[in-house]
Structure formats: structure tokens, C-alpha cells
Amino acid sequence: MPIKVYKPTTPGRRKSSVDAFADITKFEPEKSLVTVLKRKAGRNNQGKLTVRHQGGGVKRFYRLVDFKQKKFDAPATVIAIEYDPNRGPRLALIEYQDKTRAYILCPQGLNVGDSVMSSDSTIEAKVGNRMKLENIPVGLFVYNIEVTPGKGGQLVRGAGLSAQFVGIEGDYAQIRLPSGETRMIPKTCFASVGVVGNADHRLVRYGKAGRMRLRGIRPRVKGKNMNPVDHPHGGGEGHSPIGQKRGPRTVYGKAARGVQTRKPKKWSNKFIISSRRKKSK
After folding, report:
1. SS3 assignment, position 91
2. What is the model's pTM?
3. Residue 29 to residues 46, 80, 229, Cα–Cα distance (Å)
4. Residues 160, 180: Cα–Cα separation, whole Å
5. End-to-end alpha-carbon separation of the chain, Å?
6. Interval 83-125: pLDDT, tens
7. Does domain 226-271 have CATH number 3.40.50.720?
8. Which fold has domain 3-201?
9. 113: which DSSP letter?
């Protein structure tokens, strides 16, 4: 959807933009499909801070999105396109013939009045339909992909993302993910056909600190601006460099910025056909 840019009447407005919301057809969420989203502000169950720079923000409900769509061979009609404050893509409110409703991720090209279906057999591979990977034609773009059969979609759920179905070899389907990585996923896993909508979400510029606080993001302070007791980069006179260190460090002293954190012998490495890392020439 297009991004709206206002006249630069203030310094904050000059560098900011907002979503146009031109595709939204319903502005109040479905009451039966929302729940309270409890704020944690980066704390664990002991109240200790485990994730920095989180807190505050606008109160919002969590939409109960159906990532499984296990109601097979039951056509559903899209009755509304809604905004979700908890994610980038839009939500499509669908209604089955028995009048039950559900939220699904809205792909590009899905409009009010269209019909979608989920099936464990072969059906038409049109936008919004969900089926097993083994029943999807090779070369199509898919999203909301399962990793474990029956668990629900876990991969490719962000705004504007899609993965390409490369082919099937044995009991596994080969998927090229948005990162460039090609990996094997069980062919009995489900995926939806299409590309996740609202691709312009990444173009929004928030412009000022106040809008970030409304999102629940608190200020960040550079380590070099702190004292040595607070950060490995701290200390020195004025705006000093990080000192005699091999490279940047996190506030906890671990290497940061470009350092590999994935375990070299992780169990899922056997499913990766080609890594997203660029090979040096």
C-alpha cells in the first residue's frame, strides 16, 4: 500500500511518513478473535530485565491469527481487510459457510469477496489457498510455511515476504527462503500460495523518538557514551573510541556486529542445502 508523506511543518514531520491505510475496510477488530496482550517491558517471570529498550507503548489487543487453517475443504469468503498493530502485514477476516470466522495473513491480490480454501489434497493453487507442499506446483511463491507438520506456519510471515518452492526430493521439499537460504522441509507441511501483503511497510519512516515510544521502543545509548562500569566501550575523555579491543562488544562483553552466533553443529544444519552467507571469492 502507498506511503503518505505530509508537508514538513515541523522537524519531526519533515523526516517521517505514515501508512496510508487505503486497503483497510474494517477499523474495529472482531471481538471474538482478540485477547488482552499483557505487557512485559522486557522482563522475565522474576521481574528481571532480560531484553533492553522495551517498555511503554500504546495499549493494544492481540488478534488471534489462524496460522494452521485446519478446516479442510471448506471454502471461506473474505469479508474484511483489517489492520494489525502487532505485525506488518494486514489481516483478512474470513467467514466459513457455518458462519464461523477467523483471521489469516492477507496476501497480495486478496480482496473482499474472494474465496479461499485449505485442503490436505490437491486444489487450485490460487492466491490465499493453503495445501501441502507436495501438492503445490513447482516454482510458485508461498508464505506462512510450516516446519513441523501440524504445528502451524512459522516461516515467511512478514510484510512483503515470500519463499519460492524449488522442488521435491524424497520426503522433503526444497524451499528458497527470503534470506537466500535453500533448505529442506517435510513435504507434508502446509504452506499458503502467494506473497504476504503490505510490502511498503518497510518504507515507513518514523521520524522522531515520540513515535518509537508509542511502539514500545525505549531509547538506546551508545556504549562509548557510558562509564566503564556500565559498558565495555565506556570511559575515556570525550567521544572516545572503544579502546584496545579486538572488536565491538555487547553490554555483556560478548563479541558483536558480524559475529556468528549459530552453533556450528546445530541439529538442523542437515536440512540446509545452501546457506545465505555469501562465499568470499
Report:
1. strand
2. 0.86
3. 33, 10, 47
4. 15
5. 39
6. 999 999 999 999 999 999 999 999 999 999 899 999 988 888 8
7. no
8. OB fold (Dihydrolipoamide Acetyltransferase, E2P) (2.40.50)
9. T
